[in-house]
Each structure stands twice: as structure tokens, then as C-alpha cells.
Give the backbone structure.
Amino acid sequence: MNAYPENSTIVLVHGAWADGSYWTNVILPLQRHGLKVTCAPIPLTSLTDDVAALNRALERTSGPLVVIAAVASKEVELHRVQRSKEPLCSE
């Protein structure tokens, strides 16, 4: 689990039909490994609102950043990355 520097922030993005509680079983193990973890509060009202919410969550972070998105939220992340021209790594 040492693939990321100690000061990394993991931003979790829930998908449709879910909220931040989707990541309940993921947050604590990541925190135990010394990672900062936050869930982006995606409103699921429109793609524009969802991307804006993700951007606000990312602006509140510092240091190395890892974004983990549920399958249904991948469109939000892809849209955000394409608009910002940041590199995208997706599996």
C-alpha cells in the first residue's frame, strides 16, 4: 500500500444511485495506511453540476492526488479531465 507518498489525498467519487456512503468500507483501510481520504459530494443533478462539485472537492486538496471513481461516475471524471486537459489514467 506504499504506492503513494504519505501525504497523498484520495478523492472518492460515487456513481449514480449512491452517495458518499458507497465508499464506507474503503475509507478506513486507506486512512490506516496514512492516506488522506475525502468523498466528493456529487449532486447528480446534471453533468455540469457534477463536474463543478468534483472540481470544488479537488480544489480543497493539497499534495499528490488520486481520484477513484465508481463506474457510473466515470463520465463526470472524464468530462472534468478533458476540459482541464489533465492526464487521465483509467482502468
Q: What stands out?
A: Confidence is low (pLDDT under 50) at residues 81-91.
